[in-house]
Amino acid sequence: MAILVTGGAGYIGSHTLIEVCDAGEDVIVVDNLSTGFKEAIDSRAKFLQGDIGDQAFMQRVFEDHSIEAVIHFAGSVIVPESVENPLLYYRNNTENTRQMIEHCVTHQVKKFIFSSTAAIYGMPEECPVDETYQRNPISPYGHSKSMSELMLEDASKAYDFNFIALRYFNVAGADPMGRTGQSTKNATHLIKVACEAALGYRDELLIFGSDYDTSDGTCIRDYIHVSDLAAAHLCALSALRKTAQSEIINCGYGTGYSVLEVLSTVKKVSGVDFNTRFTDRRAGDSPQVVAKCSKIHEHLDWIPKYNNLSLIVEHAIEWERKIRSSAP
Ligand code: UFG
């Protein structure tokens, strides 16, 4: 039986594909290539280009293949874009996830792994934040994922269907062997943007806010290496095979770094003292978002390999260098 990966041409999806293919699984990828890249899809997987919102297309995918589990990445992920165009997010993330769940229930696919996000916590008052903390998203993006989690919970109670939702913290870095990485255009993530500045593709890096109530006044985040996150999906698949139990699980390392600490690491690793400038706070930024990670270690056989900020940055820079040197 096959594992269906939606959004396998994207950043986290393409890293997860490598893990799942390495494990010898039979994999089918569905991606519409709207933001992902065909080259990022592991050649061992069968690729079907199409939109998960296309009912007839997805119906055929489920009818033509014997699918054991779905790993569902496909969706939209840019918070400011979700504020400008919330209905796009409710369609791509919420409505399409509802349809994916329905396809699974109709075709007796009982295992579902879902890309969720720490954005569900909004501005948590306690840090590290654990999975029982209230859902309190502050953006349409966060709401779209939060509603998806609710649907998964209700569906798992009503049908013979189980899910693991992985709540990602700040995902960064790239495959250590340079097979894939973050190629997203106009990326806004701190480590990606800082790597672009270090390699001379930006004149300066703006630091959003200097007066937060944190040790150095800048925001604190829990940065997780994308390959460790990818491995967590494979662990989630094993967990669902062992026990038919649904879970929501934080994916982070439980260590927070401030923006200034990240920038100093990027400067040190790259050897480039690029320009930075303080500016106003970015709307919707929480001072501190750090994962409580006991649950992932209790429920999944997950052993992170890259829990090291310098290594995350090193791999991110290597990838940035690679894509820039091969760009036309
Ligand atoms: N930052 C800057 N300058 C930049 C980019 C970012 O100062 O050029 C700061 C931000 O203000 C924030 C921190 O760096 O304080 C991290 O920002 P990111 O944009 O890298 O990411 P966030 O942690 O805000 O959000 C990310 C994803 C969300 C996800 C969240 C989960 O973008 O989709 O992690 O924690 F929900």
UniProtKB/TrEMBL annotation:
Organism from which the protein derives:
Temperatibacter marinus
Gene name tied to this protein: galE
Q: What is this protein called?
A: UDP-glucose 4-epimerase
Q: Which reaction does it catalyse?
A: UDP-alpha-D-glucose = UDP-alpha-D-galactose
According to its UniProt record, which cofactors does this protein need? NAD(+)
PANTHER family, sorted = UDP-ARABINOSE 4-EPIMERASE 1, UDP-GLUCOSE 4-EPIMERASE
Q: Where do the NAD-dependent epimerase/dehydratase domain residues begin and end?
A: 3-252
Query: Which family does the record claim for this protein?
Result: Belongs to the NAD(P)-dependent epimerase/dehydratase family.
GO terms in the biological process aspect are: galactose catabolic process via UDP-galactose, Leloir pathway
